[in-house]
Every structure is written in C-alpha cells, then in structure tokens.
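Q: I'm writing up a methods section and want to include an example of the input and output format. Could you take the sequence below and give the corresponding predicted structure tokens, formatted cleanly so I can copy it straight into the document?
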Amino acid sequence: MIETIEFEKNYHWIILHTDFLTDEKTDYQTLGLDEETITYALDRYERAHTEYQTDTNTFTIIYNVLKRTKEENHYETIPITFIAKNQQLFTIYNDDNAYIID
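A: Here is the clean output for your methods example:
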C-alpha cells in the first residue's frame, strides 16, 4: 500500500507498507529510493541509526518503536523508517508498527 499526502504545493508525505516494497513488480527506484535504504527498511532487526547520503541529499532515520504485543512477558521494539529527500518525507512501516501511522 502506498499513500501520498500533500502538505503544500510540492511537499509530500509518502507512506509505504513494506509489503509494497517486497512486491517484485514494485520499482522503488521510481520513488527515488536506493536499494541500500530499502534493505534497511525491510530488515525487521535493523538497529536504530541515522544516515545522510551527500550524493543523493537523502537523510534516513531508522527509529525503534514499541511492538505492542508481548513476547515472553516483555515488550520488544521494532524499527520504522523515515526518509527525507528533496521535498518528500517517506515513512516505511509494517503491520507491527502501523499504529504509528494512525
């Protein structure tokens, strides 16, 4: 699933579900995203970090949010990805962290 919200003229928030990115018919490069960033976003065990790519002017934040289901009597965290590029903010989420989008 992909959803686009326009804030002002030419400023967009693009919300992507990881299922959309794993569909082999999806060409994420048409969105201006590179393979390395997509690999980070799809890794359910990716550690929280930030990265800035000067060649593409892309700022990536991998942020850990609470997974709302208990595992062995404790809560775990799961990454969600935010990417700022040009006049777009991308959020890449999965079923476990979809509540953040809501």
